[in-house]
Design goal:
2 copies of one chain form a homodimer. The first copy, chain A, is an alpha/beta fold. Chain A is 30% helix and 23% strand. Chain A has 2 domains: 201 residues, Alpha-Beta Barrel (TIM Barrel); 122 residues, Lyase, Ornithine Decarboxylase, Chain A, domain 1, CATH 2.40.37. Chain A is built from 11 helices and 19 strands.
Chain lengths: 344, 344
């Protein structure tokens, strides 16, 4: 079969959630936006709900409605983008909890759906989503009187524990929320690892669930195996691939595998990535093309049916380094053509 | 609504195909692999079939089977990866035409599906897919006696007209195929633009259909509009986004829009990209994050509901430049969360 196989270890996702859950005394939510970081939001949320997760976070109302369809009634589904114009139907039908980001959104929500649950997102310094402190102080009493499910903010630099921005955002968040009755949340994965001062009533791990940094102790979740289409002999001096990007330094055996940047194998990684045949590295040669990658398999005695891009020898973050990006983008880029195989 | 809108002009795809079709005397196929370069293979193939396209090309048998479901019987569907182990069911059910890349694939095909249509892919120097010339010469008479639908090869450097590799591959292709009865094909979009010597019996445009280089005269096909979630005032010296990547040089108005690298807005473009409000540029500030982008809208009198990333002012290839990649990757990365709107 030409399609590559993306194996997703739901058991590892569950263990990562449980490990992060054990770090804090409050509730532990789960961020499953962007289709569960590319892995399948429905399957992941169902697996986490079985072990006790009760609060899930998505980016948009559309994602929230799909997730409600998968989870059924019961779990809380928070929407980071809040209540936007045109979202009312999804928010109501999906029993979603929009995290209101502005006074405009608050007015829209209480007018369109009076009494419907909501949370509040405050900006503590990242300047991306959430009410500004001054805006919040102006509406705080009215907002709190409506009993929000959660009052939250998000850290800009939590992946860098020594960055003074973390303490500064913590101080701002406390200054504008200390003393309120509503449950509070500040930490995603990075914030959870910064320590209990950042935990408040709920932590919201995302990338750590999926085996990515900054959760260095995470259990790996994904392996990606690419089927070999053919192997050819290439003589010293011959070129391989688009733009003649690789010139064979010696007579070589080159395998062409199915998988390319249309599958989210980011083109920028080029020949910085390595494929593995068991424990044997097979360097990528030439450019990553849309559907195909070429690799030097000269060191193999027997050529297997597949070569591995992600797994035991190469983590999501190692691939990210090769592509000059972060593990989060590697995960969310995972393509639609893969045969996804889930294990528990 | 939080979801961004990806508008796809099927009429422009049709015009691009017709323009390329007019350049050559032979048949003009259409490459719709990778889900039609991210735009919707089924809708594009149906639109092109209506105006006379009879041959379509996909990367894998899985893609071919989906396309057959959309197109119905009649059009030829070629599969670039050939006939791989496990593909037989799809090849038979989908009435697909695998482009056999090796003697192994040829044996598999004739044993599994004797009499079933096929084509042959030859390597003329790219060393990626296709039979090597020596391999081909060994099986050529047997292969031709089975009446292949097409004998094809692919150019490695067709995007660079002055690259001597083009003439070299043309010479190789002619040397190993001149005099055969089967129809021949060498050119994708770039090769089509190299001139009639490269056209043979069929051209196979891909990226040019979708408005991308090297087809500089292509009609643009996609526009991408990102909804604004909120706008905030940021004082001079404040930072925006992850890693405090942008520091406001003056008091500014910053819009946060829905769309990020999980939607295929490649993270590497960072603040090299620009969003547009009508004709007014709004520079991206800070990092592209998973679901959100921040842009400086200080120059706008009135803030619109959406900002445009791709369209009149910024082509697919301009975005590719900002991201350090090629238009092909921008197209195939287009995400699943967009609301896709098709026009004719």
């Amino acid at each position: 079969m030409t399609s590559a196989t993306l194996s997703i270890d739901l058991g590892a996702v569950v263990r990562n959630w449980q490990t992060l859950d054990a770090l804090s005394e409050g509730e532990t939510g789960a961020v499953v936006k962007a289709n569960g970081y590319g892995l399948d939001a429905a399957k992941i949320a169902i697996a986490l709900a079985r072990v006790g997760a009760r609060s899930f976070f998505v980016a948009t109302a559309d994602e929230g409605l799909s997730l409600r369809d998968a989870l059924g009634v019961g779990p809380e589904i928070y929407v980071f983008s809040g209540h936007m114009d045109g979202d009312t139907h999804q928010v109501r039908t999906g029993e979603l909890t929009p995290l209101l980001n502005s006074v405009d959104q608050m007015l829209r929500h209480v007018e369109a759906l009076p009494g419907h649950r909501f949370g509040l997102q405050l900006d503590s310094g990242m300047n991306r989503l959430g009410m500004e402190p001054a805006e919040w102080l102006a509406v705080r009493d009215i907002a709190l009187s409506q009993q929000p499910e959660l009052v939250m903010s998000h850290l800009a630099c939590a992946d860098e524990p020594s960055n003074p921005m973390n303490a500064q955002q913590l101080e701002t968040f406390r200054a504008i929320t200390d003393g309120i009755d509503a449950p509070r949340s500040l930490a995603a994965t990075g914030g959870t690892l910064l320590g209990s001062a950042y935990h408040f009533d709920m932590t919201r791990p995302g990338v750590g669930l999926y085996g990515g940094l900054p959760f260095a102790d995470a259990a790996p979740v994904v392996t990606l195996d690419l089927p070999i289409i053919q192997v050819r002999e290439v003589e010293a001096g011959e070129t391989v691939g688009y733009g003649n990007a690789w010139v064979a330094p010696r007579n070589s055996h080159i395998a062409t595998v199915s998988g390319g940047y249309a599958d989210g194998i980011i083109r920028a990684m080029g020949s910085k990535a390595t494929l593995y045949a068991g424990d044997t590295p097979c360097p990528v040669v030439g450019r990553v093309s849309m559907d195909l990658i070429t690799a030097d398999v000269s060191n193999l005695g027997e050529v297997p049916e597949t070569l591995q891009l992600m797994g035991k020898h190469q983590s999501v973050d190692a691939i990210a380094d090769a592509a000059g990006t972060i593990g989060y983008e590697i995960l969310t880029s995972l393509g639609q053509r893969y045969c996804r195989v889930f294990s528990e």
